């Protein structure tokens, strides 16, 4: 933005972050957990005790011990190392997918919500059609058609999430289109484009942040689910969904650790993102400033 | 009342363009296959000759619009292609396996609504009490649950550790015979046949997968019920009703709950989308012989006609479910057909 | 004196909130005789509505009666069981509410909602409930009650909804009716109809009533006695005419002063110490804005909707013109076209001789005249971007429409704040951190930032308390003189328009039904609609008050 608001803002933004974190202990926990996952993704692969791909038939299916904190899988690979190393891939998939759908959805939603008319009708038809599929099933279809790769998992996840953002932004923009402050912005000499981009759209950010946090969770679940049924990531790449799938075969014979730990990590990551929603919203909502 | 009839008619008519879109997307998905679609549809074992035969049979040598016309024509004749895996028409396979999926999905939804709706209502009425906190924890934890993982955990606890559940393999233990087919739902068919033993056996098989799916759908329904009840309870008309001396029962059920049902019914559409997707995962975990596990097997075997048939069937099923939801919404809400939309 | 029907003794109500306990009502006492009508008057946050909920014990979650007692016909309402209270609510004491549409269950037929109450209190059986509900609808003078029985609230107008709410309240012949801002949000002629109906029904049934309102004039017209509330306390009670004519408490005096009434000028709305002489504004004979055959037609679902049907008028340089009418009369559409946010379907808008109506609204943002025509919006909260500070908001037109930069722009923003009486220390606040009056000042400062020649004021005080309205109206009058602006003042309130405007235009159904000098239109209205509007405005007892107000000096 060329017209940056008053200069005191970066200072007050930091103060606001501290305030939001202090105000709500749940938010603090969520942000701490998130920091843990981000760190795991960034430096985890360099710190893990074992090579996540190294097999050792002699040490297959060993329960958790001091040497192997989360035990070993059927090929004798260290489950702990694999769980930590998998963080990077799972986070990358979800963040990339959500970022894609956020940007595309925001633009399409703002167009439909502000200009309405034909744009609105056509875009709504497209979103209706996408939403007419059970989303996971559509993702399956897309990955099956485009090819079994990690990038295609990202695209598929992004496509099924676009309607959520677009609809949200459309509604938020639409109710503010005739608001006094939007008209005042036009009287102040702003073009329609500037009014949407700099005056109306930022007001849609708080609910979008809640959506982002939920979507990050869904995106991970979605990607893990696709891997679970054998799409996308392929063995022996460490990925939480695949690891649960591999572990599921041993659960009926009591080797619980192979599936439990990747599953727990997956749950914890989704849980973290879901918890972050309110905190993220408060961060971008000036009304929460006192 | 004419406005309502017109609105309902319009709503039913609206499914047509959506169905068209669904067919178009699934057509595009088949044609977006990397490489030669004919090779895919002919199956992995096909030689050059049968690939060529498939190409001509599917009209893949023609232009895209022509191919689409052929595709739609085939659909109208109920021809979804032939599965490489089973060697039978995909439509036959799907029709045979659909009751298993529906029985699982519907019993899971029923179970989940029976728990989630009262829980949400209770949490809203006793806002801030332990019920409310329990509801909030369940809701946040619930949306974080990967169904395939919960399924695996439940198997470990109830089958391996406690031994309460039968082995997680299909709809019925092999020592029982399936009941004579009427509806395709084992629970109903066994009751119709008066066979209590088979009924309980089927129920035991169904318990874990249904619970897995129900746990997953509990969260959105309870969350929406709670929020809708809170909104309804803080509405002005509730104050009017209280000021007029109506009993708390009447205020709660006659006034607040009926209004709160509207957003809950809307949410059910989204829940159906989740549950049909999660169904695939749960069927794989429990080896449930529904259309989900059929699709997974087909995916692994690169049996694309089967996969596309499955995607299309799911979409059509979902469109119909959404239509039913909207129609039932119109039954509750008298405003449909008047205020704008 | 008649025996007391209701007596309230030292009643205190507080709410538990996240920031601790908030005392909404702080020990108030009053009594109500049989057949009496009491008005409880106060501005927002005075605790007047909470008082009424406390009487019926229908406080929102977190609210409790701390101390005091409420006795109704010998029954201690605070000690009564919840079951006992249910028998009293609706049968002995009833209530009607503001925002009547929301006060009705949206998905239940209005007839059934009346039946619910009748059945609850044993006034009707399954067999005769329908007949009795229809009679209740007929009692509130709803036409064709049999057909309305099957209506849902969304099918009825606001005034009609309020009649249904009254029908519910009176269905079981209660002895006391509490009306909580019953006409807020209704048009002024509807307001009069609803208030007259309520008064007639109360009189006919020999009931008592409590009218809770922010409008001192309304309360004075319809009530026998008034109680004035401020910050949870009753500061003054007395006979309605006495309170209005001889307020004893300084707050009441301020409230009485601020209420627009015939015979008072702008400055008379302010407290005595703030009444500096009003410098008259100069009006030239040169036209600034000429509107010729202005028309707006929308394409609706069932054919074209004629919002504005070819109107003509002129605003002279320096003049203030009032545009008056009820909701749906086309006044907002007209102002949107004049301010060039909306394109007219036909007609010319000549500004200084140039037809600005021919420039598409989409392109007017870049027109040099953009800064010359500005607008103050109706709802100050809605018209300020929640994400922008007051400084950003006021500076926005400067940034887009002038060449002012950096320090010059900051200085100009601070100058504008000073002109509108906004303390410079508040400039870095967000809208939610400002009071209603402060937000109104920000909106005005933004509108005058580019030195406009024509300012369109769209009900700029409709959402404000009267004491703040008084200040804002005076501020507008001063700015007009100082900056030589012309005003188009859009309003539904003739009493307010009279204060600020030289000329008045009355609109109805998209047409101008009457126009002329303010005094002439007000004092000798020619058109029946104008007369109806004037007749519907509350008429507070205009007992002449000595300008020195001797009893106020004593306090």
Spell out the blueprint of helices and strands.
The complex is a heterotrimer of chains A (290), B (341) and C (555).
Chain A (H helix, E strand, L loop, with lengths): L8 H15 L1 H23 L31 H37 L1 H15 L3 H12 L3 H28 L2 H8 L4 H9 L4 H24 L11 H12 L5 H28 L6
Helix pairs in contact in A: 1-2, 2-3, 2-11, 3-4, 3-6, 3-9, 3-11, 4-6, 5-6, 6-9, 7-8, 9-10, 9-11, 10-11
Chain B lengths: L1 H30 L5 H6 L5 H11 L5 H13 L13 H36 L4 H13 L4 H15 L24 H7 L3 H38 L2 H8 L4 H38 L5 H10 L3 H29 L9
Helix pairs in contact in B: 1-13, 5-6, 5-9, 5-11, 6-9, 7-9, 7-11, 8-9, 9-11, 10-11, 11-12, 11-13, 12-13
Chain C lengths: L3 E14 L2 E14 L3 E5 L6 H9 L6 E10 L2 E2 L5 H7 L4 E4 L13 H11 L8 H11 L5 H4 L9 H13 L5 E5 L7 H18 L2 E6 L2 H7 L2 E6 L2 E7 H6 L4 H9 L28 E14 L2 E14 L3 E5 L6 H8 L7 E6 L2 E2 L5 H4 L8 E4 L13 H12 L4 H14 L16 H12 L6 E5 L7 H18 L2 E6 L2 H7 L2 E6 L2 E7 H6 L4 H9 L13 H4 L2
Parallel strand pairs in C: 3-8, 3-9, 6-7, 7-8, 13-18, 13-19, 16-17, 17-18
Antiparallel strand pairs in C: 1-2, 1-4, 4-5, 9-10, 11-12, 11-14, 14-15, 19-20
Give descriptors for this structure.
heterotrimer; B: 341 residues; mainly alpha; MetI-like fold; globular; C: 555 residues; alpha/beta; Rossmann fold; six-stranded mixed sheet; 20 helices; 20 strands; disordered C terminus
Report on the architecture of this protein:
The complex is a heterotrimer of chains A (290), B (341) and C (555). Chain A has eleven helices and no strands. Chain A has helices spanning 9-23, 25-47, 79-115, 117-131, 135-146, 150-177, 180-187, 192-200, 205-228, 240-251, 257-284. Residues 1-8 of chain A have low confidence and may be disordered. By secondary structure, chain B is an all-alpha fold. Chain B has 13 helices and no strands. Chain B has helices spanning 2-31, 37-42, 48-58, 64-76, 90-125, 130-142, 147-161, 186-192, 196-233, 236-243, 248-285, 291-300, 304-332. Chain C has 555 residues and is α/β, with parallel strands linked by helices. Among the domains of chain C are: 96-173, no CATH class; 288-387 and 450-535, P-loop containing nucleotide triphosphate hydrolases (Rossmann fold), CATH 3.40.50.300. Chain C contains 20 helices and 20 strands. In chain C, the strands form four sheets. A six-stranded mixed beta sheet of chain C has the order 6-7-8-3-9-10, sandwiched between helices. A six-stranded mixed beta sheet of chain C has the order 16-17-18-13-19-20, with helices on both faces. In chain C, helix 7 crosses helix 19 (528-536) and helix 13 (390-401) crosses helix 14 (406-419). The two termini of chain C are 30 Å apart. Chains A and B meet through helix 4, helix 5, helix 9, helix 10 and helix 11 of A and helix 1, helix 7, helix 11, helix 12 and helix 13 of B. Chain B: Belongs to the binding-protein-dependent transport system permease family. Chain B: Keywords: Cell membrane, Membrane, Transmembrane, Transmembrane helix, Transport. Chain B: InterPro entries: BPD_transp_1_N (IPR045621), MetI-like (IPR000515), MetI-like_sf (IPR035906). Chain B: It holds the Pfam family BPD_transp_1.
């Amino acid at each position: 933005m060329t017209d940056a608001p008053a200069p005191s803002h970066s200072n007050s933004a930091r103060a606001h972050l501290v305030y939001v974190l202090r105000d709500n202990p749940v938010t603090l926990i969520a942000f701490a957990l998130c920091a843990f996952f981000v760190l795991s993704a960034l430096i985890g692969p360099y710190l893990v005790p074992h090579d996540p791909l190294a097999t050792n038939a002699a040490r297959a299916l060993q329960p958790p011990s001091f040497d192997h904190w989360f035990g070993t899988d059927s090929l004798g690979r260290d489950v702990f190392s694999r769980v930590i190393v998998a963080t990077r891939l799972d986070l990358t998939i979800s963040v990339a997918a959500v970022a894609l759908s956020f940007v595309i959805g925001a633009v399409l939603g703002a167009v439909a919500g502000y200009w309405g008319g034909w744009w609105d009708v056509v875009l709504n038809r497209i979103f209706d059609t996408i939403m007419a599929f059970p989303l996971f099933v559509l993702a399956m279809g897309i990955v099956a058609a485009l090819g079994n790769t990690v990038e295609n998992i990202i695209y598929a996840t992004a496509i099924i999430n676009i309607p959520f953002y677009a609809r949200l932004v459309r509604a938020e923009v639409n109710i503010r289109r005739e608001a006094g402050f939007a008209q005042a912005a036009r009287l102040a000499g702003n073009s329609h484009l500037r009014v949407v981009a700099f005056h109306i759209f930022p007001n849609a950010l708080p609910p979008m942040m809640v959506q982002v946090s939920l979507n990050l969770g869904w995106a991970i679940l979605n990607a893990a689910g696709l891997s679970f049924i054998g799409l996308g990531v392929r063995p022996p790449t460490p990925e939480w969904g695949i690891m649960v799938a591999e572990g599921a075969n041993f659960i009926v014979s009591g080797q619980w650790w192979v599936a439990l730990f990747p599953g727990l990590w997956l749950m914890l990551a989704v849980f973290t993102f879901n918890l972050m929603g309110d905190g993220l919203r408060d961060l971008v909502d000036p009304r929460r400033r006192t | 009342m004419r406005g309502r009839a017109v609105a309902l008619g319009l709503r039913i008519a609206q499914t047509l363009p959506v169905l068209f879109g669904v067919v178009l997307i699934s057509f595009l998905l088949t044609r977006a296959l990397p490489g030669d679609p004919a090779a895919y549809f002919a199956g992995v074992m096909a030689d050059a000759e049968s690939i060529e035969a498939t190409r001509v049979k599917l009209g893949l040598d023609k232009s895209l619009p022509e191919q689409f016309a052929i595709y739609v024509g085939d659909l109208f004749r109920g021809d979804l292609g032939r599965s490489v895996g089973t060697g039978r028409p995909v439509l036959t396979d799907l029709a045979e396996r659909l009751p298993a999926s529906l029985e699982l999905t519907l019993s899971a939804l029923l179970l989940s609504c029976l728990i989630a709706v009262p829980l949400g209502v209770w949490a809203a009425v006793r806002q801030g009490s332990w019920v409310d906190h329990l509801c909030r924890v369940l809701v946040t934890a619930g949306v974080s649950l990967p169904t395939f993982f919960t399924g695996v955990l439940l198997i470990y606890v109830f089958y391996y550790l406690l031994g309460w559940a039968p082995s997680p393999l299909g709809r019925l233990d092999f020592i029982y015979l399936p009941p004579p087919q009427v509806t395709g739902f084992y629970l109903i068919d066994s009751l119709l046949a008066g066979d209590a033993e088979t009924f309980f056996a089927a129920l035991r098989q169904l318990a874990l997968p249904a619970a897995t799916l129900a746990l997953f759908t509990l969260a959105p329904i309870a969350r929406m019920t709670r929020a809708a009840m809170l909104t309804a309870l803080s509405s002005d008309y509730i104050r009017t009703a209280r000021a007029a001396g109506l009993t708390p029962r009447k205020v709660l059920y006659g006034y607040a709950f009926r209004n709160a049902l509207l957003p809950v019914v809307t949410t059910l559409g989204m829940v159906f989308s989740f549950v049909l997707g999660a169904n695939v995962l749960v069927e794989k975990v429990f080896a449930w012989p529904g259309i989900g596990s059929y699709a997974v097997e087909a995916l692994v075997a690169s049996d694309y006609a089967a996969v596309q048939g499955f995607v299309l069937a799911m979409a059509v099923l979902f469109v119909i479910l959404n239509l039913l939801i909207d129609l039932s919404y119109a039954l509750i809400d008298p405003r449909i057909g008047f205020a704008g939309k | 004196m008649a025996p007391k029907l209701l007596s309230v003794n030292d009643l205190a109500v507080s709410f538990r909130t996240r920031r601790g306990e908030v005392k909404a009502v702080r020990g108030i006492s009053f009594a109500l005789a049989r057949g009496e009508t009491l008005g409880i008057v106060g501005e927002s946050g005075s605790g007047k509505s909470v008082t009424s909920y406390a009487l019926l014990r229908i406080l929102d979650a977190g609210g409790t009666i701390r101390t005091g007692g409420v006795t109704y016909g010998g029954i201690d309402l605070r000690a009564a069981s919840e079951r006992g209270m249910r028998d009293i609510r609706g049968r002995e004491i009833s209530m009607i509410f503001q925002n009547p549409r929301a006060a009705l269950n949206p998905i239940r037929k209005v007839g059934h909602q009346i039946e619910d109450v009748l059945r609850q209190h044993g006034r009707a059986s399954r067999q005769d409930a329908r007949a009795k509900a229809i009679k209740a609808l007929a009692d509130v003078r709803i036409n064709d009650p049999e057909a309305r029985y099957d209506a849902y609230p969304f099918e009825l107008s606001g005034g009609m909804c309020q009649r249904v709410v009254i029908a519910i309240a009176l269905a079981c012949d209660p002895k006391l009716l509490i009306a909580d801002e019953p006409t807020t949000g209704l048009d002024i002629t509807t307001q009069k109809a609803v208030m007259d109906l309520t008064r007639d029904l109360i009189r006919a049934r020999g009931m008592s009533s409590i009218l809770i309102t922010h409008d001192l004039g309304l309360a004075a017209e319809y009530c026998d006695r008034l109680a004035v509330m401020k910050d949870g306390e009753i500061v003054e009670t007395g006979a309605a005419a006495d309170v209005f004519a001889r307020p004893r408490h300084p707050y009441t005096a301020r409230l009485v002063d601020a209420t627009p009434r015939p015979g008072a000028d702008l400055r008379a709305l302010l407290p005595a110490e703030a009444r500096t002489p009003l410098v008259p504004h100069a009006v030239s004979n040169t036209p600034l804005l000429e509107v010729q055959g202005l028309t707006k037609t929308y394409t609706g679902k069932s054919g074209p909707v004629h919002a504005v049907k070819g109107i003509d008028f002129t605003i002279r340089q320096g003049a203030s013109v009032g545009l008056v009418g009820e909701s749906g009369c086309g006044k907002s559409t007209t102002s949107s076209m004049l301010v060039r946010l909306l394109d007219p379907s036909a007609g010319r808008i000549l500004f200084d001789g140039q037809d600005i109506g021919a420039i598409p609204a989409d392109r007017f943002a870049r027109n040099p005249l953009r800064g010359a025509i500005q607008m103050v919006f109706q709802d100050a909260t809605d018209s300020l971007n929640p994400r922008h500070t007051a400084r950003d908001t006021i500076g926005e037109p400067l940034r887009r429409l002038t060449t002012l930069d950096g320090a010059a722009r900051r200085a100009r923003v601070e100058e504008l704040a000073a002109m509108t009486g906004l303390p410079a220390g508040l400039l870095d606040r967000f809208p939610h951190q400002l009071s209603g009056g402060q937000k109104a000042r920000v909106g005005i400062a933004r509108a005058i930032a580019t030195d406009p020649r024509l300012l369109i004021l769209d009900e700029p005080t409709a959402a404000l308390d009267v004491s703040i309205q008084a200040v804002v109206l005076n501020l507008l009058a001063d700015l007009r003189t100082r900056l030589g602006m012309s005003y188009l003042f859009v309003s539904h309130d003739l009493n307010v328009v009279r204060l600020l405007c030289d000329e008045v235009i009355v609109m109805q159904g998209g047409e101008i039904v009457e126009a002329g000098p303010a005094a002439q239109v007000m004092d000798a209205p020619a058109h029946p609609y104008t007369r109806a509007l004037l007749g519907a405005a509350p008429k507070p007892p205009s007992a002449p008050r000595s300008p020195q107000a001797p009893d106020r000096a004593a306090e």
